[in-house]
Amino acid sequence: MPRGELMEKQPAESERTSRSNWSVRKQILAAWGGWLLDGYTSIAYLVVIGLLTASIFPSYLGYWALVLTLGGTSLGAVARVAGSTVLGNYIGDRIGRKALLTWSIVGFSVFTAALGIVPSYKTIGIFSPLLIYLLVILAGTFAGAEYGGGAALAMESVKKERRNIVGAFVQSGYGTGYFVVVLVALSLSHFFGSVNFAAYGWRYVFILALIPGMLTLVIRRLSHESPVFEEMQHKKDLSSSPAGEMVKRSLKSMFPAIMIMTGLLFINMSTFSFYPVLESSFLKITGNTYYYALLLINFVSLIGVWSGGFLLRNKPNRRNALMSFAVIFVVPSVLYVYLGYSTNPYVFTAVFSVQAFFEAMIFSLIPSFLAASFNRRYRTTAIGISYNSGAVVGGLALVILTIQANYVSLRLSWVIDLYIAGIVMITGLFLSKEPKEDDVNIS
Question: Which of 73, 33, 149 is nearest to 387 (CA)?
Answer without folding.
Answer: 149
